[in-house]
Amino acid sequence: MRIKLTSVMVDDQDKALKFYTDVFGFVKKHDIPVGGPYRWITVISPEGHPDVELALEPNANPVGKTFQEGLFNQGIPATAFEVDDIEREYERLTALGVVFTQTPNRQGPVTIAVCADTCGNLIQLYQPPDAQA
Amino acid sequence: MLSTDTFVRLCRARDQLRGVHDRPLTISEVAQSARMSPFQFIRQFSALFGDTPHQFRIQARIDRAKLLLALDHHSVTDVCMEVGCSSLGSFSDLFARRVGMAPSEFRRRVRSMVAVPGALPTELFPGCLTLMGPAFAIFEKQRSWSIGQTAVS
Question: What is the ipTM, given to two decimal places?
């Protein structure tokens, strides 16, 4: 058993693919139309393991929407991505118009920031202790 | 950075835009209740939710209409009213443009797929990785097709 795939629910797959590649900087791995308006889309991180994929799942099912929005309203991130230099990422993303609900702040040994992915999620970015300056 | 207070006000505005009112609220009215200027409201809303308030409201209506058409025994006219559209013609046009088929056609297709009453067909309301099976089937087909091509050439 391996962890090879994770996912975030998104409210619009086109918008999500654009945001996750153009803004977050991930690279598209799969984009397969599966009938109707929906696609099987996964992205990988050029800085991470090429074998770990993030699926951008449509949140078309109302149950998914309720869950996603419940987390969002309470300020809870849907997932988290690791960065080497959180201050630099914060500056870079802010310049691209990304909205943060938490600026980089030290929480024990990690530094955390939270931003909106414009697809219905808050995303936590964290810089692990071994990457701290 | 967005303060918690502004974040909460923008979330409330999103709920307001999705709500059905006797008279649809103007964007200025929603901005006002979020205590922002219309310009500031549209900018902040778009940065947070990825759509303008106007686009968001249209999409919310379409999503609700799809659900009502799938689950309830309402007529298309009822659904049109229910989601806050006053003109059946413009509702049907909008729906067809966004969904790719007329509301009546959508309902017919959903109904033909529903095996258990109250359950949503995953073809039209996918979720939770249900797309993986069909995607891999297509992926395999493409791959064997391209391997076949290579073998021929």
Answer: 0.89
